[in-house]
Amino acid sequence: MSSNDSFLVIGGSGFLGRAIVDMLLERGNQRVAVFDLKTDGNFDSRVQVYQGNILNEDELLSALNDSGTTCIIHTASPMPGAPAPSFWKVNVDGTRAVISAAVKAGVEKLIYTSSASTIFNGADIAGVDETTPFPKKHMDTYNETKAIAETIIVDANGHGGLKTAVLRPSGIFGPGDYQSIASYARLIDDGKTTMQLGDNTNLFDFLYVENAAYAFILAAEKLSGPVEENPVAGQVFIITNDDPWPFWNLARAVWKGLGHVPPKTTIIPRPVAMFIGLISEFWGWLTGKPALITRFRVTFACATRWFNISKAKTLLGYKPLYTMDEGVQKSVEWWKNEGSKRGY
């Protein structure tokens, strides 16, 4: 079902943003626009495209007024690993600019993309929900600034009639994913599929990208009505596929779909992997070359991390459209038919 909203997807050229745009069009929404720093031009003719900087409030305001936007879906963010100052500029200053422009333009709804990692500090977490507080120290600047942006978005709820919500996806993968899916394929080509960090007993919540897009559209639909009476307004929601897998099982499922089964598996225990990560980081610092194994990657690959998404089920009516197996199949098909032609 389509809605009466006019959507502006900020960061709509990115992995998640593009999936949201495509799903909006598939569901019959006729008023869909994209605002991004760079665009590839390969959008459906129904999509209005605005090229601009999220830090420039005037550019944002112009796009909002021209498109008649009633609902903003904000997905823009530097990728993890980008220089720290860019996270502060885009995730914090940029989010403030979006809110200011939205209020001035009379936008009704604003949905922000955060991350489930904002409540993850490297220690095992199992079945936790949105009531879990932020850690005293975040794992990196990406999650620190995402947490700050969350607070800014929640605090903006009701300001100037604006209704806001925050979604925290966990481990997104799928077609268009030149990060994880491409990385798995590259490991096949590099002959590095036999090494496993940790014992793979740790359950991890992943999220197929079309399920993520669906959650954003549900949030937009549920934000209708007066802000004072809306149970979704000002709320934060963790979104997963509701089917945690042992961490390395996703990579192995993708490898199998690509016709590759590792001949053996060499398990590197977590303490040993952490030591290797420390040495690799030091060597990378000396040589100026990026480390293949880092303590951050070891922590991410070895920690238990799955969530209780009852809140999203109850208030948003969220239920994954695709299972993990279906998501893997669609991801593999995309890589074979399209992704591999672009490369890594």
From TrEMBL:
<dbReference type="InterPro" id="IPR050177">
    <property type="entry name" value="Lipid_A_modif_metabolic_enz"/>
</dbReference>
<keyword id="KW-0560">Oxidoreductase</keyword>
<dbReference type="GO" id="GO:0016616">
    <property type="term" value="F:oxidoreductase activity, acting on the CH-OH group of donors, NAD or NADP as acceptor"/>
</dbReference>
<dbReference type="InterPro" id="IPR002225">
    <property type="entry name" value="3Beta_OHSteriod_DH/Estase"/>
</dbReference>
<dbReference type="GO" id="GO:0006694">
    <property type="term" value="P:steroid biosynthetic process"/>
</dbReference>
<dbReference type="InterPro" id="IPR036291">
    <property type="entry name" value="NAD(P)-bd_dom_sf"/>
</dbReference>
<feature type="domain" description="3-beta hydroxysteroid dehydrogenase/isomerase">
    <location>
        <begin position="8"/>
        <end position="269"/>
    </location>
</feature>
<protein>
    <recommendedName>
        <fullName>3-beta hydroxysteroid dehydrogenase/isomerase domain-containing protein</fullName>
    </recommendedName>
</protein>
<comment type="similarity">
    <text>Belongs to the 3-beta-HSD family.</text>
</comment>
<dbReference type="Pfam" id="PF01073">
    <property type="entry name" value="3Beta_HSD"/>
</dbReference>
